[in-house]
Amino acid sequence: MxxxxxxxVNAALRKxxxxxxxxxxxKKGDPxxxxxxxxxxxxxxxxHLLHRRFDFDENEIWEYLNKGDPQPANVIEKQIQRExxxxxxxxxxxxxxxxxxxxxxxxxx
Length: 109
Fold this sequence. Notes:
- By secondary structure, this protein is an alpha+beta fold.
- 26% of the residues lie in helices and 30% in strands.
- The protein has helices at residues 5-18, 73-86, and strands at 23-27, 36-41, 46-54, 60-64, 71-72, 91-96.
- Strands 1, 2, 3, 4, 5 and 6 form a 6-stranded mixed β-sheet that branches.
- The protein starts with a helix and ends in a 13-residue tail after the last strand.
């Protein structure tokens, strides 16, 4: 059974806060089952974009978009806008971290 999206997002934000990683919600989506996109700013000019998906066994997978390469911030901003147009119920979470850590899968605090 999958957890509600709002619970998953709030837990990740609490982890980020404990690790002093700046993180915030850019867009709230469906609290029960919204897709999650994670924008990781590694500096003011370059950003990674990930999204959460599940495999056939319901295992959570965080997949880098754009072949895992950081992209210029304006390119990612446009990509996020397209994703929101496709799925207005999605969540957009932003992290500012030079180490490019995914706050959703950090296991030790």
